[in-house]
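REQUEST FORM: STRUCTURE PREDICTION
Request ID: SP-0412
Submitted by: Lab K.M.
Chain count: 1
Length (residues): 428
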Amino acid sequence: MTKGFTILLFCLVGTLSAQTNFEIHLDHRVYDDQIRKSQAVLPVFHYEGNKIESYSKFGIAAKNLPTLQIRKLPKNFRTASTGYTFLYFSGADNNTNQGYLLMLIEHFNSSYKNRVLHIDRNNNLDLTDDGPPIVFLKKDKEIFIELENIYNSSAKHVVKLSKIEYSKNPRYYNLLQEHYEKHSGNKKFSKIYFGYQATRLNTLAGNYRLGNDSFTLALKDRNTDGLFNQNEYDAIYIGPYGKEVNTQDFQTLAKVPKNANLAWNEKIYQVKKIDSNGRRVVLQYLPDMVGANVLPLGKKIPKFKYTNFALEIQKSKKFWRKNCYFFFWDKESLTTEDTTYLNKINNEFSEIELITFNHGDDHKTVRLMQYFDKISWPIAYSNMEIAELLKFKEVPYGIYVGKRRKLKKNKLNPKSFYYFWKLRNKTI
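STATUS: Completed
RESULT:
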């Protein structure tokens, strides 16, 4: 594949009717939060002959370890200035080698020549039957490689290799340099800046929108073999439309992935089929289960623990003798109107226990917001466990909880709650 590989979301507009199957096509790979934060590095070793230690022996310093025997080298292959590494991929496993593919790199230590990548795609240690090599141009900073599952030609895995920019994080790369020098078994490690940052693009996603119904659906190939419907390995996600996929919200496919249920926006969707290559998911809307994934009004909400602004663990039970307004937000979703009415609630309603929960931003970001925006209303931190207990999937989200922790109203933004409480007390 070329440098121009595009990371996009596919948008499906369809027809949603009771008990009717509908398809969502997941045609593009996306950076979920886990992929975006990844700093995985592929170390490159000096090629010194056709016998090499397999990657599974990494970190073992003993002598006379079992080796992989390269059966055939590529035609016109030059061993001078050649290195090798391993690409993580389990779609070509065999009895000899599992989980990784060998990649030979010509001119691996040159910044003046194009690097030539020979990948043992079918994992047979014969590098003459894998198609043409990939040329990593000296002017390019990254390249996308597509790997095909040898047992299912429609199943693909994509990895992005980026040249290491040592100057951006020298301390981190120096630590890696020291680590690989000490823990590479009998392999001769080169230099960390000759390696690559490897990004596994193993998440497929698509968008669905019809009227007021909208969400993003995603699949994750957790064992990186190009297949997306494997029981107890792969995972499915449903979340806010067009937003970054949050890996904490993935559900592992059960022993029987068919007929699993997904909950979103007070609706339940049943998974009817997942294509093995992850390109198509068939869902069915279940109207008889509307409201099954929301907290019932008039019932007690679950107890939970949370972290306050000082990063201390608190229990929610201290609020249960009070009328409370809980508002969940993040930096992206918080509006000027929300801020205005949160100030009003905090200043005018002494009988209301107001607490706002930031959901998703780091502590430093929230502290800076609180300081520069002169926020006076209480701030705490939410997490995925609280979201699951209170059954909300996205922010902003507000609830009014009466005494004895009974849920009185949900989906109240600050303005709505302000005027609701004014009317309730006839002060408007």
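NOTES: Residues 1-15 have pLDDT under 50 and may be disordered.
Reviewed by: T.R.
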